[in-house]
Amino acid sequence: MGSRHRVHGEPPMSSRRGYPSEGPYARGPPPMPRQHIPPHPALLEEELEVQHAEMRRLVADNRRLIDDRMTLQRDLAAAKEELHRMNLAIGDIRAEHEMHSRELVDKNMKLESDLRSTEPLKNEVIQLRAEVQKLSSIKQELSGKVQTLTKDVARLQSDDQQIPSMRSEIDGLHQELMRARTMVDYEKKANMGVHGTEAVNGEKHGFHGPRS
């Protein structure tokens, strides 16, 4: 920035040993050296002030860049840490999802196995239902028979109530039969006595008969 305050008329210096740069007429006779005029102190102060301001600006920019760089580094570290945590969380979620999926698959397989194992039970249930229906019909039939037997028992109980009178009647008939048998026996004996007397009398008459 100091070049813009260079004194006008001063030839540009070459980078080689302080000689003037070669121009289109550099090979001609060298120009006559001019008398060096030092710059004005005010210009030097202005240039120094400008340079100081530029340096302060550069330092401020440098500090701001350093602060921005540190902030970006912190943000980058935080982002990396957050990304690491997210990766861990994603890994945990994936592991949990896989475990849950395996559990669901295992439960599904177990349910299918249980369903296959219940097929014989279904057939047994169907058979038991048929037997229950059969037993229900048998129960209805037995209920009818029980009602019939109940009526028969009631009739027999009624007949049992008549048994004492029937027994007394049978006893009376038995006694009459005994009396009739006794009378018959008596009549037989009486008849046998009559026939015996007649026979004796006949023998007597027959014995005395020839004598007369």
UniProtKB/TrEMBL annotation:
Residues 27-39 have a biased composition (Pro residues). The keyword Transmembrane does not apply. Belongs to the FLX family. GO terms for biological process: cell differentiation; flower development. Residues 1-39 are annotated as: Disordered. Keywords: Coiled coil, Developmental protein, Differentiation, Flowering. Residues 62-96 form a coiled coil. This is Protein FLX-like 3. InterPro entries: FLX/FLX-like.
